[in-house]
């Protein structure tokens, strides 16, 4: 039974991640504008994904435990290019490519570098979610935030906790996914709470 559940967890995670960024991309392209989309937030997210992917590759973990990351990274890169295009900053694309390319190389130079980067990656990702929570608390309005996106993120974290325990059992990876799961659920619940409160008003 365990292999069947493991396969289901892998496949469902890949399926969700294959479309997780498409609503945002569709909205940007439909409006032909990136207004309201934070470049800094996207860059931080992309950094976290690249560090995590590099960490998995560095330690030789099974491909199926991180296959979704190249898919999400590709979607983030396309979204970033759209934002730069609409903001008239396409020249920055080369700068970001050099920075990320150099970072990708530097991460694997020493074991302590990739381990430290992984721990910082978890902190940065957690901080970004806490910032989103703070914004929700300040505005008391969830109108601009997608509960579906956050709930899909929570689901993928839950499945990755299971697959990590069943395969690598890496403590740093588990801490990351458990932290992200808690915060994703928290953000989702907060969005739904304010949406319900708004309907009641």
TrEMBL record:
Keyword presence, Membrane: yes
Bilayer-spanning residue ranges: 42-61, 67-86, 93-110, 173-194
Keywords (A to Z) from UniProt: Membrane, Transmembrane, Transmembrane helix
Signal peptide feature range: none
Name by which UniProt lists this protein: PQLC3 protein
Provenance organism: Smithornis capensis
